[in-house]
Design goal:
By secondary structure, this protein is mainly beta. The protein has four helices and 16 strands. The longest helix is centred in the N-terminal third of the chain and has 22 residues. The chain starts with a helix and ends with a strand.
Length: 423
């Protein structure tokens, strides 16, 4: 072979070698196309049932100082939820749209009704209603993080505990949740993601448990506040307020109840101290301008308190929970009990209703200890998750007046447990 032929062959080898090497490399997988909007719609269901054991066995069967778990020594189907919806894509940079429609049935509905929406369908403790019906919009407005908008019927964003049982640490609720916060709203609000550390909330609602256009006093309310996130997400502070008239115009005539506001103010501070330990502090203050009518004039009613939570995760199956709380009701305006199943929504809409309450300044305290057990379910369960939550709770009146168990005891001890199934 001549030197010229050898050089040509060598040059061809060098030219085709990279192509051969590339041909031997495994092909790169094609990027998956983005999911269709309709493919991201999810259907879900949830069931919660439980029992509150009261060793004192009050003859009226009422656990005073509680709403959703007010029936003693009686098994309850608290809520059955059925929902369909699509959450907003948290990575969306342009416009994105979602929605949620959720129905609810159970004993909890006594306290979650929207006024004039299926609120007179039954006298049974087991009732049904719409828990949420809203549209969600993400818009690339004003800041790099954009704006998230909620319009329709929705649970209040105020507070730490929620109507959704699966997100709470306990079966029983705090005094703050039961008596210091609104329940749900109609209207809308926006969250402006100003920076990764700061969100600003602002919106308008028809009030607490009322629908715009069928309001109990034909006045709107303001909802707003902010959320601050620090320490790479380990610390967050959510401070929100809801201000507007809440008394029905038919209650006191010819007094203009729309001229007297109720202000719900709530701050939730959450600190993830470690991978296992999360600490949450909730501060609450509520003021009603139309608290009482006296010879000397109209007086305010005030209430509020502080609740401290601790959650310690032992492993994927077990979490230990604790809650300690103090709640002050200056005129006994807020804390009470409703022996009638339609009493709570009748109170919102301004109709007569039976009510168990006391007079004077009352200071309540409660300590709740419990655990959340999340068992590992077999594959045939089809994606169902289970929560089992036993708890022990002690309530007391700190200023010395007997209020529990038909007004006979200053202290009430309760042993409770619920089960939550989520699909």
């Amino acid at each position: 072979m001549s030197r010229r032929h050898a050089a040509i062959i060598a040059g061809l080898a060098l030219a085709i070698a990279p192509a051969i090497a590339r041909a031997e490399d495994p092909p790169k997988p094609a990027e998956a196309p983005p999911a269709k909007w309709s493919d991201t719609i999810k259907i879900g269901a949830q069931l919660q049932a439980g029992i509150v054991g009261n060793p004192a066995g009050p003859s009226d069967n009422i656990n005073y100082g509680q709403l959703y778990t007010d029936k003693s020594n009686s098994p309850q189907l608290n809520q059955a939820l059925l929902s369909i919806g699509r959450a907003l894509d948290p990575k969306a940079e342009g416009y994105d749209f979602g929605f949620k429609l959720q129905g609810i049935f159970g004993s909890d509905v006594r306290y979650t009704h929207f006024g004039r929406l299926w609120d007179k369908v039954t006298r049974s403790p087991y009732q049904y209603s719409i828990n949420e019906a809203d549209i969600l919009v993400h818009a690339p407005w004003l800041t790099e993080g954009g704006t998230d908008i909620t319009l329709g019927l929705f649970p209040t964003p105020l507070g730490f505990e929620t109507i959704d049982a699966s997100t709470n640490p306990f079966y029983t609720h705090s005094y703050i949740f039961d008596f210091g916060l609104p329940v749900n709203h109609s209207g809308g609000y926006a969250i402006q993601h100003v920076t990764p550390e700061l969100d600003v909330y602002a919106g308008v609602t028809g009030g607490n448990q009322t629908i715009i256009g069928s309001d109990n006093n034909s006045n709107a309310s303001f909802l707003g506040g902010l959320k601050v996130t620090l320490l790479d997400g380990a610390l967050s502070v959510l401070a929100l307020t809801h201000i507007g008239p809440e008394n029905a115009s038919r209650v006191i005539k010819p007094l203009n109840t729309g001229g007297y506001n109720r202000a719900y103010n709530d701050i939730v501070i959450t600190y993830k101290a470690s991978e296992a330990l999360t600490l949450t502090t909730e501060l609450n203050y509520i003021q009603e301008n139309l608290g009482s009518i006296q010879l000397s004039g109209i007086k305010n009613a005030e209430a509020g308190g502080i609740a401290q939570y601790a959650a310690y995760t032992l492993n994927d199956n077990w979490t230990l929970n604790a809650r300690a709380e103090v709640f002050l009701d200056t005129r006994s305006y807020f804390v009470g009990a409703y022996p009638s199943s339609q009493g709570p929504i009748r109170a919102v809409m301004g109709y007569s209703y039976p009510f168990i309450g006391f007079s004077g300044r009352q200071t309540y305290g409660e300590l709740t200890l419990g655990t959340t057990y999340k068992p590992s379910l077999p594959d045939w369960a089809g994606g169902v998750t289970m929560l089992v939550r036993p708890e022990a709770r002690i309530d007391t009146v700190l200023n010395g007046n007997a209020r529990y168990n038909n007004g006979k005891d200053r202290t009430a001890g309760l042993l409770s447990m619920d089960i939550v199934l989520t699909y």
